[in-house]
Design brief:
Layout: H1 30-39, E1 54-55, H2 67-73, H3 84-97, E2 101-105, H4 108-119, E3 125-128, H5 133-141, E4 145-148, H6 169-179, E5 184-190, H7 203-216, E6 220-223, H8 227-237, H9 246-255, E7 259-263, E8 273-277, H10 280-293, H11 304-317, H12 320-323, H13 325-339, E9 352-356, H14 357-360, H15 370-382, E10 384-385, E11 387-389, E12 409-413, H16 421-436, E13 444-448, H17 454-457, E14 459-462, H18 466-478
Parallel strand pairs: 1-10, 3-4, 3-5, 5-6, 6-7
Antiparallel strand pairs: 2-8, 7-8, 9-12, 11-12, 13-14
The structure holds pyridoxal-5'-phosphate.
Pyridoxal-5'-phosphate binds near residues 134 and 273.
Amino acid sequence: MSKIKFYTDLNVPLEMHKVRIVQKLELLPVEARVRSIREAGFNTFLLQNKDVYLDMLTDSGVNAMSDKQQAAMFTADDAYAGSTTFTRLQKKLEELFKMKYFLPTHQGRAAENIICLGLSNEGQCCLMNYHFTTMKAHLVSQGATICECMAPEGIEVRSNNPFKGNADLKMMREEIESQGRENICFVRMEAGTNLIGGQPFSLANLRSVRDICVEYGLPLVLDASLLADNLFFIKRREEECKDWSIREITAAIADCCDVIYFSARKLGFARGGGICVREESMYRALRGHVAMYEGFLTYGGMSVREMEAITIGLEETMDEDYIRQSPEFIEYMVNALVKRGIPVVTPAGGLGVHLNAMEFVEHIPQTQYPACALAAACYISGGIRGMERGTLSEQRNPDGSEPLANMELLRLALPRRVFTLSQVEYAIDRIVWLYDQRKKISGLRWVEEPEILRFFFGRLEPFNDWPEELAEQFRKDFGDSL
Ligand SMILES: Cc1ncc(COP(=O)(O)O)c(C=O)c1O
């Protein structure tokens, strides 16, 4: 890690890379932004990217590639079977995770599908620190259930707990005892726990989870999609690991697990995914599903160019200078918002900044999707596209009732190596303005509600003309500014 101090009292995160390919951005006038969000049914997933200034929807598949990744893509060995590109990727994963077997998939949720098909049965329960939308959907479609073993402070918005993603060990043990070992399919730990604000687990906690798994003979499955952030936080926040290299921390994490799966749209700055497996018997149990749903075992739905990029990207993940950039920008943004009294999830996590909609727009009831309304308002205020992570991202219960989410968050993702600090400053400025106008924002109701993963393509409408009123206020305050 390079330690660079400023001569003046400036204290900003400093990038250890430069930008050599750029993409022109547009910022529509505020009135056009209102039209766009209406056309998108107040769902930021349905906005056209050309109408977005800062795309903070996700870090998935939109991280910036390095020169080395781009160069490696030209050396890809295009073969259906036995490509050397695949062997390079498999060897890199084996070197980092010390697991012999690798099953490629086209992205993270495909890996989840294969794992659920191979390792879960109807009526079984998957214990986890916290759920992720697509993993939960796959388990449910297998007739399995989930049980989140997380201490209450994991879902407290404001906290000093450096490891809010930790599993509650007592609860995990109690669940295994009360449900019976045979009714648990596997234990899943998610690195950089997405839905609670990109919060990490500690190595100590993972080791204890591993001990429980060994005691009961349960497989420990790691979702490593957000591993890069978790590695950085362990290095920064866990005393035992402060002098360890990122590679050593990676090996210690992997050593606890039986299976490691990931979305390479997040881990490895590319696109794709896969499953690393320790035991041959488990590999054999899963590989037929890969051949059936993803492709042959040496590409699994990925292009060879992407596989080359992942191999390099995984190596770059071992470079603290690269992986610190995104969490440091997030911390910078979180600190600036906290200073102005704006409710955000603390401590700063990975992936993005998470505005707490339950406080930001406390006048909107959860049944009117406050985080979704805030996402729409944020787009209107600055052409900034975030993602609702709250009740709307949940699925209805089988009886049609609405399970209210533990947290109502607007996630503003900071894809890795993509934005500049002045763009982050712009986002802070528009959020500060929006906070002053928060009473103008109202709730939303469904126009079209899909049954599965409704947050992706559902359409909503406002109860009144609050979007137009917000735009009018913008004109008053900003004049002819975009
Ligand atoms: C923690 C986690 N797991 C799995 C996935 C699914 O990955 P993909 O989008 O590549 O299907 C994601 C994607 O956002 C994620 O954040």
